[in-house]
């Protein structure tokens, strides 16, 4: 076990690579978009070919050994250190318990209802209760690296958010402390109370802007272009690196054998699907896996620009942002995803290596999203509305003939169900406005039922009250005596 606790000696040489003009920039400064053409970046380790000299079987042994480490720097996403940000020193790695989230196989009853073998990867079991912690752990570790290198005494971190990003950014900033401070921009009235409580509780400065996420993102982008701030949205390529760990963990969970696996991912700002494709491609390049799993992205009808792009004839595709409408999949309610150029670039590579059908995008209704979340959670999961979006995507994929018998669908539950409890409550109490296009099925409503009222409690003796309440329960449940 001693060897698993030893921090790696390998150090990469990383560069920002622009997907627009192919320009390259050093990583000793913060870059978000290309200074030459404003394109988005991916990060590349120019020493990666050296990693290819190690057999895939040896890498599997290394990562499996580290899975039991007691070293905090290697317990989380940096278990896969060489594949992620191998420029960060051990003492700069931030670990709050992120990563290693379980893949939970669905019950027999749910699989029978869906008609497919399936599982959820419950990323709501990350520290701030969403997958965003993966990217933040990497981004903040790199920030600590830069702070040490340059001696910076004041770094303001900033992000636009629909909730989960702000919660993660504020949490990690609070843990790291000086010289980092956190500011988050939220769309006014578009974030659940549970999600809003998180950055406030972590002490971040929370600013609200009328509109939707895209409006907040424009403000944050302007600030990052003109002022010295550390942008923590997925435009930050270090965030993407951290989120690649999702792919690594899925592969490791299935003992590095991804044959017959189909990964469903809600698209949103497109950072997660970018990272997952990139992660699987790295594993294939190193021979750690032999087969790419199929990937199916999912978007709501109310925010579906990536679906619309791939729904066009391949020879005449043109990306256009859309105006979003209200969605219960709130974290995916983004009409102009920052990472779309990354998706287009990586999807092309993915399909070349994975073959026809290895990448697809489907569109689902709001009605199906919320009811799929309820269905999943009534069968023992803790899926958020984005997890419901993935299950809705599985239903749609089956309708379209995209799933084969015997394939296992791995669905991404990006956050904890409790973050979106308000939408469940709205469904149960028929509280959705017409803009959501959701008509609740009263048979699915599950609300508390009063057994005995307060007047009876005050009128009866303590023993009589207990007996009467118990008899009322018997009547409600139809219990038989022993």
UniProtKB/TrEMBL annotation:
One of its GO terms (molecular function) is L-serine ammonia-lyase activity. Pathway: Amino-acid biosynthesis; L-threonine biosynthesis; L-threonine from L-aspartate: step 5/5. The modification N6-(pyridoxal phosphate)lysine is found at residue 132. It catalyses: O-phospho-L-homoserine + H2O = L-threonine + phosphate. Its EC number is 4.2.3.1. One of its GO terms (biological process) is L-serine catabolic process. Signal peptide: none annotated. InterPro entries: Ser/Thr_Dehydratase, Ser/Thr_deHydtase_PyrdxlP-BS, Thr_synthase-like, TrpB-like_PALP, TrpB-like_PALP_sf. Transmembrane segments: none annotated. Its cofactor is pyridoxal 5'-phosphate. Pfam families: PALP (PF00291). Residues 96-407 form the Tryptophan synthase beta chain-like PALP domain. It comes from the Bacteria. Belongs to the threonine synthase family. This is Threonine synthase.
